[in-house]
Amino acid sequence: MEQEHSTALKWSSDGELSVLDLHRIIARLADADPIASGLDVSHFGAVQREQA
Length: 52
Prior knowledge:
single chain, 52 residues, mainly alpha, 0% strand
């Protein structure tokens, strides 16, 4: 069994999950659920945070 690297989630100063961690979570969710493959950070309001 391959050991996965453990990481801590990072939160931005406004209390939201960091955009990088959000991307990683969405990618893992899409790997597990084909329906989720259509999700992107814009579904979670992260586009505005990336541009800020």
